[in-house]
From TrEMBL:
This is Signal transducer and activator of transcription. It comes from Neogobius melanostomus (round goby). Residues 589-687 form the SH2 domain. The keyword Repeat does not apply. GO terms for cellular component: cytosol; nucleus.
Amino acid sequence: MAVWIQAQQLQGDALHQMQSLYGQHFPIEVRHYLSQWIEGQLWDAVDLENPQEEFKAKRLLDGLIQELQNKAEHQVGEDGFLLKIKLGHYANQLKSTYDRCPLELVRCIKHILYTEQRLVREATNSASPLGAMMDSMSQKYQQINQAFEELRMFTQDTENDLRKLQHNQEYFIIQYQESLRIQAQLSSLASLPPADRQLREPALLSKRATVEAWLTREANTLQKYRLDLAEKHQKTLQLLRKQQTLILDDELIQWKRRQQLAGNGGPPEGGLDILQSWCEKLAETIWQNRQQIRRAEHLRQQLPIPGPIEDLLNELNSTITDIISALVTSTFIIEKQPPQVLKTQTKFAATVRLLVGGKLNVHMNPPQVKATIISEQQAKALLKNENTRNESSGEILNNNCVMEYHQTTGTLSAHFRNMSLKRIKRSDRRGAESVTEEKFTILFESQFSIGGNELVFQVKTLSLPVVVIVHGSQDNNATATVLWDNAFAEPGRVPFLVPDKVLWPQLCEAINIKYKAEVQSNRGLSEENLVFLAQKAFSSSSNNPEDYRSMTMTWSQFNRESLPGRNFTFWQWFDGVMELTKKHLKPHWNDGAILGFVNKQQAQDMLMSKPNGTFLLRFSDSEIGGITIAWVAENPNKRMVWNLMPYTTKDFTIRSLADRISDLNHLLFLYPDRPKDEVFSKYYTPPLSKAVDVDFLDLVFVLGSTALKKKKKIKPGLYQRLPGLTPNHRLYSITQVTRLS
């Protein structure tokens, strides 16, 4: 497969590296339009260190310039004219730059090809699922590019036929004028004497008969040309529709789906550059064919010939208008979504983009885009084309923005940087639905014309569902609504319907993606972790993952109904774990030091067979966003597993987990058998760090299983022993506060 086709599919940093290879020294347009020729040359056959090889390099330079000039010569149409000028300019530029040093051109292209091959090789590891996916994408992209080449050839063919038709019609009109002149001469014979009339009339009649016979034959020929041209345009439009459906209904919809999953922490949706280039090619091809059809209609009006061509041209014109309308309205998209949990009185941003705006010169009269917040019901009515009387469900400040054209990237977009939701109007809620389950959307709309006001478009696009909150305490439940919607929405749904229940493995995939994104870790949830979560969600004791494969979880189980014996839902507990890990435990989670998803009984079973002082870290069952330490130790009567009272974010803002573990001398080994200093010492606060500045210190004294907690005012950093304590009591300072359950 051509390297250039694969290079165009690079994403992220690899794409930026590829783009940085090009510039004035070698324009990327040259690489694009001459990709096959460039990759077909023997650049490696030139020894760059041998000056005598310069003649080979000069031959390659001349060949490159000749190819550019040939490419320029074959450009037609309005946009082809601009490309023709651009390619000619590049030919002169490269000749001027490398004519005296052609070896440098070879060096430049060898470096470009080597780097592209390396980047593609790194991205396309055929042994990995990603590599197989990229190879599949490459094949699809190749098919799309081949279809564009077919469309280009079809369009060039109909352009040639149209020119031929125009030439023949012009000659026909000349001959028709000649027949009128002959008829006029025949009419003038009536004023001549009979002898003169008899002398001249036979020749004129013969000439008229010959011309009229030719006109009759030629009229039939012209009609056939017109019908043949219309049939060719029909085939072109069929291929155009097919290509546009593939790009808009498959590729663009998939990009939007990836964008939605990225809202849950999935991989980035990827850039729009390839999609924009395809949409621009579609726009260019559609516009060229539209102009051809209009020229054919003009020729028909100029010389009406009875037949079916008038209806055919009307049908073609209607079809091409439908195609371009679908393209323009579908490529008005939201490049950067507004936040899906939207707090009132808080600044937020969004970006909308018209993928074909630059190609259709929409920026010559920059359109304005307006943003409005609407309810789920209003969104449904909008998609049904029902009259919503421009209703909104709230007031957004700074909600108008003019689209800007960025010449370097060829993008036309509107960047809303300082929007703010001033107020929200809520609808009547259904049943047990809470305010954090109510979905809104931001409607972006604009109007513009193309082709000198030939076509006027009103375009609209809806953001992903938005949940509006007025207080930070609602964020947790609002995020649950967004997570469920992003994960389980189906393409083409009625806004914003989602299934009320999903298979447990589907939910596991969604929360695992969310967890890794929130914690910013490559360590996701293991199968054991997911079994623990299933036990919690379904109040089950089974340790077999297969038992949960076919089980379903409802939205109510996820975030409406409290877990048995608790005052919080499954999601609220899980979200608390994510928040705690993200803010305070990320390095320990990444190191594998936190087992986390282990219940009290499991912890006891695991620790009882280990030496005294062995401990593990698990997330609290009883407190949202808490982590506890379980350890095994000798009691005067028997060996026991102890569980500390859970630590929360509030505790870790005072002293870190690693320091707290360091302070607890009875903790010796992290389960199963790793010395605690080996695991945590790199996170200990250096001993000379500034003491905690507080007035009152909590001192906890432990004797066996008895906890005595006293409060005493002491100077920070000093250790003091209180009266009445025996050597069996263990003393902790403020930096060693321990709460026991």
